[in-house]
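User: Please predict structures.

Assistant: First:
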Amino acid sequence: MAWLKQNFHWLLTLFIAFVFIQSLFFKFTGSPETVYIFETKLDPWAASLGFKGLFAPGGIFSAKVVGAAELVASVLLLAGAAITSSRAVQVLGAGLGLGVISGAIAFHLFTPLGVAVVNTDGSSDGGELFLLACGVWLSCAALLWMRRSTWLAWLGQRRAG
């Protein structure tokens, strides 16, 4: 039990990094699944609200931009977990990961993308992407809770300064 308490952050970190890193191939190569999600579903939805190009290549929420943020979060999480004296790095990675994945969950819930993504061929992922996003969100939140003394100290210094 002591081992688990001491190393639980590794399980959370490895899960988050696995989910983020395994999706990079799709986001960075313009795979049909990624094009469908970002350019066929999300960008037309954003355009209907007056934000054309938001999810298109070159947009501020394009697949490559989101993928880059996920890569940075993964590197920060893994580096912070490996260097025990650098919990602040892990906090930054968990915070970035939480922000990215909160956006993903919101887009699943509040856009035509939906919880179960239906692909152009009519197949459904059965909600797998959404469930993985929820798992990443919970893992990032748990890491931030475990490392709360670090970020609470930052908040305390801001208020005092």
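Second:
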Amino acid sequence: MKTHEKHGLMYAVAIIMGTIIGAGILGLPYAVSVAGVIPGLILMGIVASCMTLLMLYLAETALRCHRIYQLPGLVAKYMGKKYKIIAMILFVIGIYGALISYIIGVSETLAHLTGGSAYFYKFLFTGLVSLPILYGLKTVQRFQFVLTIMLGALIAFICLMISPKIDVNNLLFADYKSFFYPFGIIFFALTGYSVMPELEQIMTKSRVKIDDAIIIAVLLSTVLYSFFIISFVGVYGNNVSQVATESLSNTLGLFGNGIAIFGMTTSFLGLGLAVRDAFVRDLRLNKVLGWALAIGIPFAVSMTPNLEFIQPILITGAYTGTLTGFLIIMTIHKARKTRGDKPAFVTPFGTVGMILVSIMLFLGLISTTLELIGVI
């Protein structure tokens, strides 16, 4: 592989992982502890496989177009303007929910560490992190590459430090009646298909490798999540905190806060750039206005008093994510029947794969709804 192709693949993997790994990782150990590590990891493997297919479907659809679109633009091209409106609403609301949560999460973490004002850190964090998004993809990918490496190193360090205290009995516990309990948080934690246009730009000279980048990034993210889950549930069992790093104490607690800050920052960069590109590419707004809408609205909502970190994710994440997944399947199905550029690859498993992913998405909607109303 040529040097520029290697660099392109590395940056592509980093920007996918940077978008995937965010606040979701912090809630995984608690959610999995309810069902047990073995059922939880089985469910994660299923969701990771389906998410990989969804991202491959979107990549294949994008590569059938000569022009680079964000998701709403792709839906409009193959499904029509009515579906574009639906796609844009789901896309923007879903990302806004995550961005609002990240602003709240990082500001509260910094305020807790320093004793300062969370409102001050909302201004500081949003101002600093929004600048790379304004400058565009090249700046964002450099920041994400460095931050993703630092995040992975922090996660590995903390897991290695606490792993000698793992109690095997905590890992053997299993409650298969609660098998789907972690579904919502796992699905949210593995979602990363908003990054597709950035992949096309990074890998313009090696589009045939985009599927490799997706598979590698989802696989590495899943392995990292599994390591994190095994370590925290193995040590703390059912007593693990809902925000896993709050279980840590002393110096390790500081490193745990580092995971929260780096994880939310890398994801903020990827998602902020994605929604800016949707405004610029699909609604044809100028870059500054697209950037202002992408960052300004989530920031304004984050200033709402008493708004908690987890609320925007619960309200927007699972529902918009799964419904967007259905749109992606409908779009690739239509794209394969429409003339266009020959894609660099065709996603395997055909119609069977689409049906299986659709079933997974449907179960996700049902399980998330049952969780919210307190049935499971």
